[in-house]
Known about the structure:
Helices cover 46% and strands 16% of the residues. The protein is an alpha/beta fold.
Amino acid sequence: MAAPGDAAIAEMGTIAEPAHHAGRVGLVDIGSNTVRLVVYEAPTRLPIPVFNEKAQCALGRGIATTGKLNPDGVTEALRSVRRFVRLAVAMGVDRLAMVATAAVRDADDGMAFTRRVERASGLPVHVLSGAEEARLAAVGLLSGVPDADGVLGDLGGGSLDLVGLNQGTIGEYATLPLGHLRLAEDSGGDHKKAREILDAQLGAVPWLGEMGGRAIYAVGGSWRALARVRIDQTHHPLHVIDNYTIGFFDALRLANLVAGLSQSTLDRLSGVAKNRVETLPYAAMALAALLEIAGPREVVFSGFGMREGQMLELLPEDLRHQDPLISACESQAERTGRFAIRGRELLDWMTPLFASETGEEKRLRHAACLLSDIGWSEHPDYRAVHAYHRVLRIPYAGLTHEARVQLALAVLVRYNGDVDDPMVAPVHNLLDDAELERARIVGLALRLAHTLAGSAPGLLSQTQLKVTKTRLTLELPKDRAVFLGEAVERRLRTLARAMDLKERIG
């Protein structure tokens, strides 16, 4: 294995050079609170994370009083960087970028620290400016929510980055020294003073007041921890943070509640890492202050931010504009499918069943087609439930909680699962009756399609579905022996009855 400083590492390139070939890309993010390595698989589509590890270093602790990085944090950060670079080499990472954010940017000894990191790793460290950090956070968010409209807030240990978003277009930005570590220290642990600092700093951002009635997109580990508290509090049926959405008043109640909790109560919170508990009230105060000044309609918690934006910058231009959901599902289908039946083939074949669908409904149906063979290798008795849980929790961008449930239920039904099974009933509350029925129809159509074609490519296109007011017809070619069978007839009948139609084979 190559050691840091060897030519094998040095040749990985610098952050400014675009990737021109397929392979794995990695990012070491040296933040104010943590140092993290994320490795992405980058073939011919948008990368998906294959490794993610963080080290709690708290580089920014004490910077408000000393002006310097936390000495213990520096030691741990250097140790972590050495480990992460060696891991990246062992994993076959072709491109490894190293970035540092607010603590390193603001500390008097920040540049000396970056030189130590560079000597230890053999790689250059790019210290992001506030503007770069804010822009990359917006790029990362927009990869999952392309039409985001409102304001992105990315809360780190040392800073709060704010970016105005106008229907997917990046607008004005601000970087403020309001990270949860920084705020706790600047206020001396006094909650009243912390709130005064927040109000003064946020009140000086003139465009924040223009965001009323839109959304706040909350990015950062501490704000995700608040979302976990809310999910546990309300027994929300889906424990996925990305795109978890709550209204203004619920968000404000949550923020004020956590901001006022005693230390003993904070210590008992489930789902919150112990190293976040100490400064969680300051993260909550920051959210409350932002809510009161911006007046949004809702808060959308996001799992995508600066790191994802930086990853996209390492990729060729043609990969950056792919739909992240469809791209990820296509990669999943290629890895797990049996006979390479194409998602587009399934999508086109069942389109006559959905004549009046919206573009977003078609996109979600396409994703269901791509994931519809995900459980083929499981034991038949467990295919439905295992496929359901895998799809419900896939770490892909571009899915609301409601969309996740629709997608998972469609795949459940495709494997002959029951949407009324008590195991899946808790998620029903996230869908209305029309959405639930649509998921069932998509699943039954997928089940018929895979039975009709044996999941093999090229056969479905020889057949056609036709829908009238009273009848569902499956049109077959003259040479129809490969298509006829008891299972096909039974599944056609089941689909027709679900649509309140009579079935016919023509």
